[in-house]
Amino acid sequence: MLNKIVILAGAALLWTSAAGAQAPVPTAADSALAECSRAAGEKDQAAASTAAERAERLYRARLAGEPRSADARVGIARVIGECRIGFADIMSQARLSGQSVEMLKAALAIDSTHWTARYVLALNYFHMPAFLGRTDDAVREFERLIAQQGTRNAHPVYAQPYIRLGELYVRQNRTSDALEIWRRGAGLFPAEARFGELIQRHGRRADAADSAAAPAPAPKRAVLLERLTVQASANRMDDTRSGTSLRRIDVLMTPGGTADLMQVIQTGPGTTRAAEGSDLYVRGGDPAEAPVWVDGARLVYAGRYETLHGGAFGVLDPAVLGSAAFSSGGFGARYGNALSGVLDVETLGRPEVRAGVVSANTVGAGAMLQLPAGKRAGVWGAARATEASMMLAMHGRGGEFDTAPRALEGIGGAVWAPRPGWQLKATGLVDVDESARNVSAYGYSGPFGARGGTRLAALSGRGVARDGRVAVRANLSATERTSGFDFGVMDRERTDRGVAARVDTEWMLGGGRLRAGAEAAGMEARQSGVTPTSDQLAPGSPAEALEATTRDASHLGGYAEFEWAPSGRVGVVAGIRADRLPGETEWTADPRLALAFRAGAWTLRAAGGEFHQGRWRTRFALPDAGSPAGVPTRARHLVAGAERSGEPSLKVEAYTKSYGRYADAGEGLRVAAGSATGMDAIVRWSRQARVNGWVTYSLLHGRLELEDGRVVPSGVDVTHSFTAVATVRLPGELQLGNTLRYASGRPFTPRSAGVPGAPNGDRLPDYLRIDTRLTRFWTVRGRMVVTYMEMLNTADRANVAGYSYDDAADRRTTVPNFFGQRTAVFGGSINF
User: Fold this and answer.
1) Backbone angles phi and psi of 343, in degrees to 5
2) Nearest by Cα to 490 from 662, 621, 382
3) Beta strands across the sheet bearing 244-246
4) Are strands 292-294 and 342-347 parallel, antiparallel or unpaired?
5) Predicted confidence band at 76 (pLDDT cuts at 50, 70, 90)?
6) DSSP classification of residue 7
7) Chain centroid, CA 480 distance in Å
8) CA 636 to chain centre
9) Tens digit of pLDDT for each residue in 314-367?
10) Helix, strand, or coil here: 181?
């Protein structure tokens, strides 16, 4: 993993221009470097950043006065490696590493015997992932260091090249050479215990391998490679609730994830494969029950290319993704107006160095740029354009669309950090998309036109007291979503707007933390056009013209939550929140509790509570008199699970959720109550030499109790969901990835001659999709270049999104998924 390039304090103690030379008195720049290195080791990003800026400024000032100074160049390289890389994302780490390498090469061009320059350069190569192909470079640099040192043993740091070189030899299956170099090192540095440990461990392995292989030649042993670790979920005591944490690299590299946050989340536990698009169906809940926040602002809708079956992709550009935390149940009191889950996304913070990426594929192109603005501020922005005509034409699918899917998005931010621990950030997002797919549905054949647009403006600020005991965060936001559908007699336009403000505070109190906050929001919806009054859309079908109407609602809420860790093994979070929710007149009170107990590598968790959500909804649904209808406004969660760290990591959770207080919605059969019970499990391998990935399984039993007393499956009762993701390292800096998804068929209400059958009495065919991705990593002048070929739905399976009925002909038509045919995408990116 590239953040291993962070050089541990003390690994390069000598600030000398030749082995054995007398170390000079530390300068102010050296002291600042030591300070930032210490802060980085303690994971204090604010302090490390401040000291790093001071150190780099002093080194560059020295370089301006002494253009031939190798020491100044090495100092700058060390600032990058020790103080900056550890806090950067994977793509920025590659670029920063390249900058460090170039600076060290320049130092060695001035003084080829500069011990520290060569040692830091060798460590950079040593810690780079194997797919970058730098193992041979690391071997070469350490061998030169040992030749330069000779038999000098005046300082213990001279032992490190012997240790590292032997480890590199093991990676190359040169165990005998490793043992020889370690024995040489042990003779020169008898006080270094590490030599004895390495000789004993690898000597036994070599003997065992030779014995097992005799009399035939010894078989090859596994090469120890650096791994790219993707963390599926945290195992922390300061948050007893279980969740999934995602980073930008997770989104970019998951096979079949189409570099889409909403799609990648669905490869993990907690979601149900009820549809192929971007909507999150969380443990038996509707997508409206799992809202998405971006920098503290709640999006009206997080999808694009919206249809009556949901959006195809998410609206968030992964290039600016700082972090994303997803919780599928039992979440804390901070979140209100949500029944099933929450997705909380943070965009990039303040840029510390200039960076950018340009990407393109057969569907579109995009670019991202980060620019520091002085010592305390910075701006970043990204834009991407999508146009699917080329991809569709490549596969002979151009006739499927009257207007190929197309979209244009821009997102940007400005960040000001006046002092460590304080930050003010402004974020803006604009997205527009349209498509018109030729389909036969609801008794009509023709182009289904969809238009959408999302806008967001958010201002967020946070501050931490100097003693770290009090923290405050505040947000102001405005969001808007426009959507339009035209198909047959339907021609609907709707615009949803929202404004919101919230403040969150946290106090350290003795051995615990007290969190409290309040929020207020206003919503407005305007709609117009023509809407059908039945589920038939052919010309002449019943419809009514809508007068331009405006509705509004508001939300007031607040919470308090106390977190207590009586020991390093036990954690408790107890909270309560109160809300007057959108569309409701009464206040609700939601108590919530979470417990955790850690025993060795295992963490046991339990969480539960009450959750309310207003009846206010933004999605459009065709009338369907034969299917259950209603909007739940209350859910009660109980979740219990166990998580094991290590290799492989494992997490299993069982849950039960009961729904109640249904509000009227739609024309279908009235629902009185509902329930969802099941379990989620994930097993992940992330430290293997060649093959890594994860396997998830979800079991769901969802039921609805109708007002007439019948108990029927819920509309998202997907009994089994299974996902397997695997990436394989291949020779030549290649990586092959595969994702397999399987899900039981989703229930639906069948029809015959226009008469509805049993509510949710039939099921769609099972869903099965395999995606494959071949990726090549390159480094060109210190820049990371990624090229890839991705094949979606490799098996060319025609998965079904749903059925449409022509009552006049008593005919049922299949509605295909967007990726109902095999689809190839080619592309690449370069970081600068």
Assistant:
1) -120, 115
2) 621
3) 244-246, 321-327, 342-347, 292-294, 297-298
4) parallel
5) very high
6) P
7) 24
8) 27
9) 888 888 888 788 888 888 899 999 999 999 988 988 887 788 889 999 999 999
10) helix
What's the CATH number of domain 2-213, 3.90.1170.20, 1.25.40.10, 3.40.50.1000, 3.90.550.10?
A: 1.25.40.10
* C-alpha distances in Å from residue 315, one per residue of 303, 344, 407: 5, 14, 10
**pLDDT band with cut points at 50, 70 and 90 for residue 421:** confident
Distance CA 506, CA 696 (A): 35
Looking up tokens 């221009």 gives 17
**Cα–Cα distance measured from residue 603 to residue 705, given in angstroms and rounded to the nearest whole number:** 36
- Give the three-state DSSP class for 88: coil
Instruction: Kindly state the DSSP code that residue 81 receives in the 8-state scheme.
Output: I
Rg of the chain over Cα atoms, rounded to whole angstroms, equals: 29
Range among 189-193, 373-377, 739-743, 773-777 rated most confident: 739-743
**Residue 466 structure tokens:** 């100097």
Residue type, position 3, single letter: N
SS (H, E, C) 355-395: EEEEEEECCEEEEEEEEEECCCEEEEEEEEEEECHHHHHHC
Q: How far, in Å, CA of 767 to CA of 801, rounded?
A: 9
Q: What is the dihedral of CA 97, 98, 100, 103, to 10 degrees?
A: 180
Kindly report whether the global pTM for this prediction surpasses the value 0.85.
no
What integer is the mean pLDDT of 803-820?
77
Asked if 795 contacts 771 with a C-beta cutoff of 8 angstroms, the reply is: no
Quote the CA–CA distance of 370 and 351 in Å, as a whole number. 6
pLDDT tens, 142-164? 988 888 888 788 788 889 999 99
Which of 391, 426, 129, 69 is closest to 253 using CA atoms?
129
Kind of pairing between the strands at 587-599 and 543-567: unpaired
Cα–Cα distance, 649 to 269 (Å, whole number): 13
Cβ within 8 Å of residue 197, ≥6 positions away: none
Contact yes or no for 696/722 (Cβ under 8 A): yes
Q: Where are the domains of the chain?
A: 2-213, 244-831
Residue 283 — pLDDT band, cuts 50, 70, 90? very high
Give CA angle at 670 (668, 672), nearest 5°: 155
Distance (Å, whole) CA 128 – CA 110: 25
- Judged by DSSP in three states, 816 sits in strand
In angstroms, how far is CA 121 from the centroid of its own chain?
31
Residue 825 identity (one-letter amino acid)? V
Architecture of the domain spanning 244-831: Beta Barrel (2.40)
Read off the tokens for 553: 């609602």
Task: Give which of 322, 391, 190, 424 is closest to 818, Cα–Cα.
Answer: 391
Is 778 a residue whose pLDDT tops 60? yes
315: left (phi over 0), alpha (psi -120 to 50) or beta: alpha
Residues 545-600 have pLDDT tens digits of 888 889 999 999 999 999 888 877 888 999 999 999 999 999 999 999 999 888 88
Please list, in sequence order, all residues whose beta carbon lies within 8 angstroms of the beta carbon of residue 468, skipping any fewer than 6 positions away: 421, 508
Give the residues across from 551 on adjacent strands. 525
Q: By the 8 A CB rule, do 667 and 623 touch?
A: yes
pLDDT of 242 strictly over 60: no
Amino acid occupying residue 735: Q
Give the pLDDT score at 133. Answer: 66
CA distances 126 to 120, 169, 239, 311, 500, Å, are 10, 11, 35, 44, 49
